[in-house]
Write a structure and sequence with these properties.
The protein is α+β, with helices and mostly antiparallel strands. The chain has 2 domains: about 220 residues, Porin (Beta Barrel); about 120 residues, 2-Layer Sandwich (60s Ribosomal Protein L30, Chain: A).
């Protein structure tokens, strides 16, 4: 009996393979592609240098430069792509240097920077993520979000003070290498002109990571130079460009214009493939792509068929008691009530958070190592916005009384500027300079009496409530 069963099984396998009755499976290949996923792009536009010592616009002047971008693009999925970009351009900038105490100079300084960079950009097609599954209208506009990193080379030049703008000297010559890394983020609005051509208006914010990109050079100890006009942040640049995309491939359509959940995209396949849409929970998303098959009736869903989470707190709107205000799941998605504390306690918390904040020597520039402490202080102040405080700046005993007084005032103001950038209401903060009048370690006058750590603790910023 076993012999007959074995013979029958072998015969079934053989006949099934001969007559094509076995299930045929194979990997997805290039021959299966129905959309083009390669393209090349060229952009042209202008740039503006800002957040720097020498800027392209300020009170009374506007000096834009030009920017060119060349890209090779690969669409990885319907909503995400990668681009290899080469960028070239030239900026124009200037600053008013006003020093009536040291060099007795007041006037404009001009600069220009020729740059080139190579970067890798990620391209998120936001419209493909937002497109409704029941939207069968023609798809010709899309919003794109970009982020990337690369290497930068530049030649920064500056004219002599009060020059005509023609006599320039090279201040910094940074070759294209991994010693100068830059990053950028931005948005683009793209329009499908035809199956082969797209146009795009794109704006990018470029962070050079370098304080000499604007041509200001390095600070000169003891003198007020162009490099002292703005301190504490790297030079950044804004570009606005119009781009032309040319799609490459043998297919009539490009992958980026067909979201897999879109009805128009499915019906637009080259072989007009149609299928039966089964939607068991009635949320408008076919079960083939529905990640949440039991969505309650009437609940708004995203393209994957899951309940929306408007405030991003991890609690879906269908269960969130406060759908527009983030809060923990343990409190039904609503923020937990804060325990009210006194102004003195807030001042103590902030002062403790700022303990050990470091400034550059003889400067009001905050060292990067102290940013985390300032961020913690900002969170405390934002959670307790009803109190007002004096922000006291203190120095060590080195230097004269008048000089230390001004330095402490600048350091207090520098801390307030940083907190403002973090969203703190600075109308409740009043800077006060104490100079070296209230040393934490009084025995450190002169500074040679104490080790470095004690002098560092004398250079501090503290908060006191205004009552």
């Amino acid at each position: 009996m076993k012999k007959y069963l074995l013979t029958f099984s072998l015969l079934s396998i053989f006949t099934g393979s001969v007559f094509g009755q076995t299930e045929q499976k194979r990997h997805f290949t290039n021959e299966d592609r129905k959309f083009n996923d390669w393209s090349v792009s060229i952009y042209g536009g202008g740039n503006l240098l800002q957040n720097s010592d020498l800027t392209s616009w300020s009170g009374g002047w506007f000096t834009p430069g030009y920017d060119l971008q060349f890209q090779v693009n690969k669409q990885i999925s319907h909503a995400f792509g990668l681009s290899l970009q080469y960028q070239y351009g030239n900026t124009r900038q200037k600053a008013l240097v006003d020093d009536m105490y040291i060099s007795k100079y007041r006037g404009y300084v001009w600069g220009k920077t020729e740059y080139n960079g190579i970067s890798l950009l990620g391209d998120l097609n936001v419209s493909n993520l937002w497109r409704r599954v029941d939207n069968t209208s023609q798809f010709r506009w899309s919003l794109h979000a970009y982020a990337g990193v690369g290497i930068l080379g530049y030649k920064a030049e500056r004219n002599f003070y009060n020059g005509s703008g023609t006599n320039y000297i090279t201040v910094t010559d940074q070759k294209l290498s991994d010693k100068s890394v830059y990053s950028q983020v931005g948005l683009g609005l793209r329009h499908k002109v035809s199956n082969r051509i797209d146009l795009e208006l794109k704006s990018m914010y470029i962070m050079t990571g370098d304080e000499e990109f604007d041509g200001s050079g390095k600070p000169w100890p003891g003198y007020w130079t162009a490099a002292d006009t703005e301190e504490g942040r790297d030079d950044n640049m804004l570009t606005l460009s119009l781009g032309l995309h040319v799609k490459i491939g043998k297919h009539p359509e490009a992958l980026q214009w067909y979201p897999p959940a879109g009805g128009a995209g499915i019906a637009g396949l080259s072989d007009n493939t149609l299928f039966e849409c089964v939607d068991a929970d009635g949320d408008g998303v076919c079960d083939q792509w529905d990640r949440c098959l039991d969505t309650p009736a009437g609940v708004r869903v995203d393209g994957s068929g899951c309940s929306l989470d408007s405030d991003g707190d991890g609690v879906p709107d269908s269960e969130d008691k406060c759908p527009t205000i983030p809060g923990p799941p343990t409190n039904g998605g609503c923020p937990e009530k804060l325990v009210q504390i006194s102004g003195d306690e807030v001042a103590l918390l902030v002062t403790s958070a700022l303990e050990g904040v470091e400034f550059d020597y003889d400067s009001d520039r905050i060292r990067e190592a102290s940013y985390g402490k300032l961020n913690n202080a900002a969170e405390v102040l934002k959670a307790n916005p009803s109190y007002k405080f004096y922000v006291e700046g203190h120095t060590d005993a080195a230097g004269g009384v008048e000089y230390n007084q001004k330095l402490s005032e600048r350091r207090a103001a520098s801390v307030i500027r940083y907190l403002a950038n973090k969203g703190v209401d600075t109308s409740n903060l009043t800077p006060v300079g104490k100079g070296k009048s209230e040393l934490k370690h009084v025995e450190c006058n002169p500074v040679s009496n104490c080790p470095a750590w004690k002098n560092l603790e004398n250079r501090r910023v503290i908060f006191k409530e205004i009552k």
